[in-house]
């Protein structure tokens, strides 16, 4: 690769990274707006103050933190040339992502079993806010799972190696962002009731 091609590749890689960061910043603004509305709505007389988050949300937080760790270790394994370990860690990350989704739905089921509904005439403003916050996060998680599947596919096609890590770097950055966003939401919902 000559200097011109190297400079073009560097510009191309930098542009992709910037686009990802613009997307992440817009998502941060979305969640900032939603959580601000939640804080303002807490002053309403019909706000539920005795409402507790189900334990499934705590367990899902632990699972998503572990998924970030496995993704990070997979990236390190690729850098050191340990493809077999990287494959196991990427598949493990996917399994943890699916477990996270299952725990989220379990949490919703627990909330409904306690008699709190998210929509309809029996819903409250509190549970509707939780529903919107978690569903918006789940949409981003779905994008993260699709990204993870693309990373796994490209890994098995042997497209990542030292010096060619852009795809996995972008995927890992987005995945860690989705994880951090859930941690933020969980802590926010836990402490701001």
From TrEMBL:
PROSITE patterns: COX3. Residues 1-193 form the Heme-copper oxidase subunit III family profile domain. Coiled coil: none annotated. One of its GO terms (cellular component) is plasma membrane. The chain crosses the membrane at residues 20-41, 56-74, 86-108, 128-153, 174-192. It is found in: Cell membrane. Pfam families: COX3 (PF00510). Keywords: Cell membrane, Membrane, Transmembrane, Transmembrane helix. The keyword GTP-binding does not apply. InterPro entries: Cyt_c/ubiquinol_Oxase_su3, Cyt_c_oxidase-like_su3, Cyt_c_oxidase_su3-like_sf, Cyt_c_oxidase_su3_a-hlx. GO terms for molecular function: cytochrome-c oxidase activity. GO terms for biological process: aerobic electron transport chain. It is a multi-pass membrane protein. Gene3D superfamilies: Cytochrome c oxidase, subunit III, four-helix bundle (1.20.120.80). Belongs to the cytochrome c oxidase subunit 3 family. This is Cytochrome c oxidase subunit 3.
């Amino acid at each position: 690769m000559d200097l011109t091609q190297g400079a073009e590749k560097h510009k191309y890689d930098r542009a992709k990274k910037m686009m990802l960061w613009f997307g992440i910043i817009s998502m941060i603004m979305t969640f900032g707006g939603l959580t601000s509305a939640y804080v303002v709505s807490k002053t309403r007389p019909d706000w539920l103050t005795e409402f507790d988050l189900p334990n499934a949300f705590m367990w899902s937080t632990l699972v998503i933190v572990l998924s970030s760790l496995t993704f990070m270790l997979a990236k390190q394994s690729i850098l050191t040339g340990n493809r077999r370990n990287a494959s196991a860690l990427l598949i493990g990350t996917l399994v943890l992502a699916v477990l996270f989704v299952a725990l989220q739905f379990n949490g919703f089921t627990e909330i409904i079993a306690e008699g709190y509904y998210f929509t309809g005439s029996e819903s409250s403003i509190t549970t509707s806010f939780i529903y919107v916050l978690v569903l918006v996060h789940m949409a981003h998680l779905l994008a993260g799972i699709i990204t993870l599947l693309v990373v796994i596919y490209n890994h098995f096609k042997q497209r990542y190696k030292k010096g060619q890590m852009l795809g996995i770097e972008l995927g890992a950055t987005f995945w860690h962002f989705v994880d951090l966003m859930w941690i933020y939401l969980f802590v926010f919902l836990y402490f701001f009731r």
